[in-house]
Amino acid sequence: MAETIKTALITGGSKGIGYGIAEVLIRDGIRVAITSRSKANAEEAAKALNKIRDGYALGIESDVRDLSSQENAVQTVLSQWGRLDYFIANAGVGHFAPIQELSAEHWQETIDINLTGVFYSAKASLPALTESKGYFINIASLAGTNFFANGTAYNASKFGLVGFSQAMMLDVRNAGIKVTTIMPGSVATEFNNHQPSDKDAWKIQPEDIGQIVSDLIKMPARTLPSKIEVRPTTPK
Fold first, then answer.
1. What's the pLDDT score for residue 193?
2. Which of 10, 55, 59, 158 is a Cys-bridge partner for 43, taking CB atoms 3.0 to 4.6 Å apart?
3. What DSSP character marks residue 151?
């Protein structure tokens, strides 16, 4: 009997941490669907990922702020590959300003993407993950436990996400679904309009988070690391 090929869906997977996770999982022999609000970006990233292992990447246009969009993304994976084993909720945004200057629009977008978007992702994927006894992994942030000036929206979204994720873990564990929160510190990505360069060599690299996801998936079924904080070894 042929070995079952596992599948994963990663939100915000066309670049940064999401793309780094996709690279590692494909090298592990897992099929990966990545989503982006831009169809072109999703398809371009999937094309590059398929050079690692042909036919193992799928690009999907999807917006985490829309429940039906998330449901469609999950259904696309099921239609393409017949199963969903891992969901990595990675899509995120950051708007940083003093509360006096933070706009209502930036507040709402941050909460909608970073927190409500994960709720929608969970609602869309839990039926399939229940079937596969799968894994739901949230990419949060150290900003989920460490507050800072100019971070009212971002801190609120990530504090909320950590609480959401830990409570969700308790809700679904008896259904055979694992839930883990990964909380990275400084990662070398394009987040907040940053352009990665050689000066970012000290930072966590996207593929490092991918390795953590890979290791979590390989953990014995009896063991669940429910929350993982990740920091650069030697911060600048």
1. 60
2. 59
3. -
pLDDT number for residue 192 = 56
Q: DSSP label at 115?
A: I
Q: Which two tokens stand for residue 30?
A: 């897992």
Which residues, 6 or more positions from 195, have their beta carbon under 8 angstroms from its beta carbon? none
Cα–chain-centroid distance for residue 89?
3
Give the HSE-up count for residue 87: Cα atoms under 13 Å, Cβ half-sphere: 33
**Which two tokens mark 227?**
């929350």
Instruction: Calculate mean pLDDT across residues 69-98.
Output: 97
Strand partners, 229: 183
Closest C-alpha among 22, 32, 216 to residue 137: 216
Residue 116 DSSP code? I
Model-wide pTM > 0.85: yes
| Sheet strands side by side (includes 135-139) | 57-61, 31-36, 7-10, 86-89, 135-139, 178-184, 227-230
Q: What is the pLDDT of residues 144-196, one digit of tens each?
A: 999 999 999 999 999 999 999 999 999 999 999 999 999 999 898 766 566 67
Dihedral pair phi/psi, residue 93, rounded to 5°: -145, 155
What is the chain's Cα-based Rg? 17
- Is residue 154 part of the annotated active site? The answer reads yes
| Residue that has been written with the tokens 């609000």 in this structure | 37
